[in-house]
Amino acid sequence: MDVSQLLKAMTPEVFERISTAVETGKWPDGTVLTANQRDSAMQAVMLYQSRHNSNAQHMTVAAGGEIKFKSKAELKRDFSTQGTLGESPEIARFEHDDI
Question: CA–CA separation, 46 vs 65, rounded Å?
Answer without folding.
Answer: 8
